[in-house]
Design a protein that fits this description.
Helix content of chain A: 40-55%
Shape of chain B: globular
Strand content of chain A: 5-15%
Strand content of chain B: 15-25%
Distance between the termini of chain A: 45 Å
Bound molecules: fe (ii) ion
Oligomer: heterodimer
Helix content of chain B: 40-55%
CATH superfamily of the largest domain in chain B: 2-enoyl-CoA Hydratase, Chain A, domain 1
Number of helices of chain A: 13
CATH topology of the largest domain in chain B: 2-enoyl-CoA Hydratase, Chain A, domain 1
Largest interface: A-B, 28 and 18 residues
Strand order of the largest sheet of chain A: 2-1-7
CATH class of the largest domain in chain B: Alpha Beta
Number of domains of chain B: 2
Number of domains of chain A: 1
CATH topology of chain A: Ribonucleotide Reductase, subunit A
Structural class of chain A: mainly alpha
CATH class of chain A: Mainly Alpha
Largest sheet of chain B: 8 strands, mixed
CATH superfamily of chain A: Ribonucleotide Reductase, subunit A
Radius of gyration of chain B: 24 Å
CATH architecture of chain A: Orthogonal Bundle
Structural class of chain B: alpha/beta
Order of helices and strands of chain A: HHEEHHHHHHHHEEHEEHHE
CATH architecture of the largest domain in chain B: Alpha-Beta Complex
Strand order of the largest sheet of chain B: 13-14-15-16-17-18-20-23
Shape of chain A: globular
Distance between the termini of chain B: 32 Å
Number of strands of chain A: 7
Chain lengths: 483, 552
């Protein structure tokens, strides 16, 4: 029987969608499987493939107890197809079909739109694994190494989730798109990933933490809005992915927090109070706060770009069709159709940033970005609390939405982090104060030395407050295979 | 949209295109300025175009011929990263009056035809180097190129999404070229035209949508190599220097527009305009070197440029002027000498270009949706290429015999070799062949009279004119004709004329200007596209078009 809480292992592919009875899709997935394994094997350095990693594997989609932890070699990880439990009599939550029963099959008129959304989402999942492929070589601890791999295998599973939808619901085209998801690759000249942020490399661990905090959070927002889809299989898929995604953001938030903490501890120990005394702080083997701010600026702005144009026809079409909702659609108090309502978006008029009302339907992207900005503020606040507690006069701030943008209305101008429009010369004169420079990168890179001893951490990062799965501090999260 | 649209552009002020010349290869990059729209109310995002973008492209193509005859291969590419060209700007189309849309489509069609024919006519081959999304009018740009190269980055695709997205047709030749030129199977074409996202990679090649699919990492070098290869194997003669097209001078007054060799008098109350084309006063250049030294001031070239600008100006800016009267002034023998030089040197690059230019300009006249009439008056010079106008227009009136107080030489028509080959219509026949479809022997009769100054009676007998009128009848008859014409429905006139003008066989060109355009214009008038709940109006709002489901 399809649609159960427990995951069935009667096929090579763990699932709760009755794959064992769905010969057609099972065959397609099994055909795709070797390509996926091949992709994985070529990606992550061999000694990590052979290592035993303490990972969680989904055994159920019951929110109360869905995972079990155990050592596993990553290529043997049970990637599977898992959908959140079906909500009986679910209705389309928004758009022109609102209130009608949610679609269990793809509506023909929206086939292409749905397929495109799934392909774009699917393309980001392996993209980040590719970006992070070499980080294991410089892991600051086995704890962090394990977290990296956990994020990686789950992103791999997210790819599976999207591929399942493509193969089950989109026929021949879907199978081709599934193949192309393995053909594109991050930063490739041959066939790059579809979105810009997934073609930038993740050169060091601070970037990784920033990425999981800011960019995975974009992923979360996209999944949240797809979870509102009137196409029920997509909604259920995304609802389960959000459960996993929470851990990725946890890795990001605590990761940055621990980097900040190590810096604060070292500064206090050395009696340095001036956060801008960069040379002396760096001599302590930690990352100075201004450099952390610059990394934040970079990753935050790249992530804002992922929300696309502020005013977007595609987003309006998707919302009105009921195949993509807004963040927490069911909690929003309006008609969920946006017939006549308006929404404020930023625009540039005569060289000034102004706020303009546009039809809310066309501003769905902007609204999701606004929700994201609020959502992203929480962790930043907690980092600042730690800084304050340490008695250092410094505050991490997210830059203005106009700063350093490649996509949307702000792409046309240059602005400082406070959102003042500036000239190209002014930008050139100050950009090194706002975004990581080559030298900053080289410095951070110089700290990236592996620390593989259980319970030990690199100088620039503090130990976590708690272990994974309540394991003790010196737990061997990864049993490294030594060739 | 009441501002005047000017078709004259200066390359130094292009906003949307960049051309780099290097020997026999020119790189033509489309990099549309979002804020450079011709009108208010839309932004030209994603390399989408409006009439202003196309006016520049037309200028590029034209200058490529005359100013850069050394160029044998033109590579058309995008100056933007992720998009080749998204096609005509939808908001512009949604906001434009029907008449503007139609004129816009006509002009863009003419431009595409012009660079498509550049290989055959001038030995200049166009390669489309497609990287990024290439949709709708964007793919139609590529389709008009002689060779299409697509990168295989698993994202770049070619597509014609008009039907599913906008409920209109790929109307700039798209539907016609995929079947007639690229010879795509019709059932595959049916699929291709009903999917939004287009076709990428090897399938694009398998379906004959592109000529080559190239690995992304090798794309730039392969395009470069192909351009060099085509240039090396080109049969186009090497020409070192071209001539310069200097800014076109014209004077605009309330009811007249004057160029150096053309004057248009506008009678808005009578809804008619009179085009007066002036023959040369000066004797013909002695040879093509002398012609080239005169450059854009050589009379035949100057006249063609002026006439083309006049046609375009009047089409777009004087929509209610429904009748165009053509007359000429000048000495037929001097004009004949000018034309003879070009005819005798048809293998000279510049002579060839001048003739090809006239061919294109006469075709513009053929497809102009105005009632066209020619008056062959005393003192006129309807010789050769100008006589073609007589066979392009809907009717010809000729003065017969002496008129009182009229000292001008008697009206004559002189046929030359020009009327029997070098200026075919879109149906690939000459205008005389088309005229005499039922009596082909009359073409031979006419050919036997080459070089003769034919008077009204003879011309009438030969079937070259519609009506000959003497001094007593002329004024009244032409006045009544013009008043009658002005009283008819402009729509009925457009339909009538467009049908009567193109007898004979269908070609890709006639199918584009006839069949495809007519269907597109019908759809452009239907509520399913342009009604307030139609797909085109609703595009961008997120709400889909509301269709009347009746099949008509
Ligand atoms: Fe993910
Ligand atoms: Fe994630």
């Amino acid at each position: 029987m399809a649609d159960t809480l427990d995951v069935s292992y009667d096929t090579r592919i763990p699932n709760n969608v009755g794959l064992g009875q769905d010969r057609k899709v099972l065959k397609a997935l099994e055909k795709w499987h070797p390509g996926y394994i091949d992709w994985w094997n070529k990606l992550i350095p061999q000694n990590f493939q052979d290592s035993m990693v303490y990972l969680r594997t989904a055994v159920s989609v019951d929110p109360k107890g869905w995972a079990k932890f155990d050592y596993v070699k990553m290529p043997d990880y049970r990637w599977g197809v898992l959908l959140a439990p079906k909500v009986e009599d679910r209705l389309i939550p928004c758009g022109e079909h609102m209130g009608k029963p949610a679609w269990q099959e793809v509506p023909g008129e929206y086939r292409n739109m749905l397929k495109r959304l799934i392909v774009i989402q699917g393309d980001t999942e392996p993209g980040s694994v590719e970006q992070q492929r070499f980080l294991g070589l410089t892991a600051p601890s086995l704890y962090d190494l394990r977290n990296l791999f956990q994020v990686n295998v789950e992103e791999g599973r997210h790819l599976w989730a999207m591929v399942y939808l493509l193969q089950k619901y989109f026929g021949k085209d879907g199978r081709e798109e599934a193949d192309d998801l393995l053909r594109r690759s991050s930063g490739s000249e041959e066939a790059p990933r579809m979105l810009g942020a997934f073609n930038e490399e993740t050169p060091d661990w601070l970037s990784f933490f920033m990425f999981t905090y800011f960019t995975d959070r974009d992923g979360k927002m996209q999944l949240e809005s797809l979870a509102q889809s009137g196409f029920d299989p997509l909604s259920r898929t995304c609802r389960f992915m959000i459960t996993e995604e929470a851990h990725h953001m946890f890795v990001g938030e605590t990761g940055v927090g621990r980097v900040v903490q190590a810096t604060l501890d070292a500064m206090n120990k050395a009696g340095i109070t001036d956060p801008n005394n960069i040379g002396n702080v760096r001599d302590l083997g930690v990352i100075d706060l201004p450099t952390i701010q610059k990394k934040l600026n970079l990753h935050y702005t790249l992530s804002l770009d992922l929300f696309g144009q502020e005013v977007s026809t595609n987003a309006a079409n998707a919302f009105n069709a009921g195949i993509k909702g807004r963040y927490m659609e069911h909690r929003i108090d309006d008609d969920h159709q946006l017939g006549d309502s308006v929404y404020n978006v930023s625009n540039i008029v005569d060289g000034k940033i102004v706020t303009q009302e546009v039809p809310a339907l066309t501003a769905v992207n902007m609204r999701l970005r606004d929700d994201y900005v609020r959502d992203a503020a929480g962790g930043v606040g907690r980092w600042n609390k730690a800084i304050k507690k340490a008695g250092i006069d410094f505050e991490l701030v997210v830059p203005h939405e106009a700063f350093h943008r490649q996509i949307g209305v702000f792409a046309a101008i240059k602005a400082d982090p406070q959102g003042n429009i500036i000239t190209e010369e002014e930008w050139q004169g100050s950009v090194d104060d706002w975004l990581p420079t080559k030298d900053d990168g080289a410095f951070v890179q110089s700290l990236m030395k592996p620390c593989y001893e259980p319970g030990k951490y690199a100088s620039w990062i503090a130990a976590p407050k708690m272990g994974i799965d309540n394991q003790p501090g010196d737990f061997e999260y990864v049993q490294l295979h030594m060739a | 949209m009441s501002q005047m649209i000017d078709f004259r552009v200066d390359p130094a002020s292009y906003r949307h295109w960049k051309v780099e010349y290097s020997g026999p290869v020119a790189i033509l990059s489309m990099d549309v300025d979002e804020n450079g729209g011709l009108f208010e109310g839309y932004e030209l995002k994603l390399n989408s175009y409006d009439l202003g973008v196309d006016i520049e492209l037309n200028d590029v193509v034209q200058r490529m011929r005359f100013e850069h005859p050394e160029v044998k291969v033109v590579v058309m590419r995008s100056g933007k990263d992720n998009v080749f060209c998204a096609g005509a700007n939808i908001r512009m189309l949604g906001g434009a009056a029907h008449s503007h849309k139609v004129n816009f489509c006509k002009f863009t069609n003419e431009t595409r035809n012009a660079f498509e024919a550049a290989e055959k006519d001038s030995g200049q081959q166009y390669i489309a180097a497609v990287k990024g999304a290439c949709a709708g009018g964007g793919y139609e740009l590529a389709l008009a190129c002689n060779h299409i190269m697509l990168t295989d980055d698993s994202t770049s695709a070619v597509g014609l999404p008009e039907v599913p997205l906008l409920a209109v047709l790929p109307g700039t030749g798209g539907l016609t070229r995929i079947t007639d030129k690229r010879k795509m199977r019709r059932d595959l074409a049916d699929i291709f035209c009903s999917i939004e996202e287009g076709v990428k990679g090897q399938r694009a090649k398998d379906w004959r949508l592109v000529d080559e699919v190239i690995p992304n990492s090798k794309f730039a070098e392969t395009v470069e190599a192909r351009a060099q290869e085509f240039a090396a194997s080109s049969t186009k003669a090497d020409v070192k220097t071209g001539i310069i097209f200097n800014p076109l001078e014209r004077a605009v007054t309330e009811d007249a527009v004057s160029w150096s060799s053309v004057k248009v008098d506008i009678d808005r109350a009578g809804r008619k305009a009179t085009f007066t084309l002036k023959g040369p006063d000066e004797t013909a250049p002695v040879d093509m070197d002398a012609f080239q030294a005169q450059g854009d001031q050589a009379h035949l070239l100057r006249l063609c440029r002026d006439l083309e600008d006049a046609i375009l100006h009047m089409r777009l800016n004087e929509m209610e002027v429904g009748l165009w009267v053509f007359r000429t002034e000048g000495d037929p023998t001097i004009l004949a000498a000018h034309e003879a030089l070009v005819a005798a040197n048809s293998d000279h690059w510049l002579a060839n270009e001048v003739r090809q230019y006239w061919k294109r300009t006469l075709k513009r006249l053929d497809v102009t949706s105005r009632s066209l009439v020619a008056f062959v008056e005393h003192g006129s010079c309807f010789v050769g290429v100008l006589a073609e106008i007589l066979f392009s227009v809907d009717r010809t009136y000729m003065m017969d015999g002496e008129f009182e107080d009229d000292e001008r030489p008697l009206a004559t028509i002189t046929l030359t070799e020009a009327n029997f080959g070098p200026y075919p219509m879109g149906n690939d026949l000459t205008r005389l062949q088309t005229r005499f479809l039922g009596e082909p022997e009359l073409v031979d009769t006419a050919r036997a009279q080459i070089g003769e100054a034919l008077d009204a009676e003879t011309a009438d007998k030969m079937g070259l004119v519609t009506i000959i009128l003497d001094d007593i009848d002329w004024d009244d008859e032409v006045r009544i004709f013009m008043e009658e014409r002005a009283s008819f429905s402009p729509d009925a006139m457009t339909g009538l004329e467009a049908n009567l003008r193109f007898a004979g066989p269908e070609t890709m060109e006639t199918r584009i200007f006839g069949r495809l355009t007519a269907w597109q214009n019908w759809i452009f008038n239907r509520p399913n596209a342009v009604g307030k709940d139609g797909a085109l109006q609703r595009y961008g709002t997120g709400v889909r078009g509301d269709f009347d489901l009746e099949r008509v």
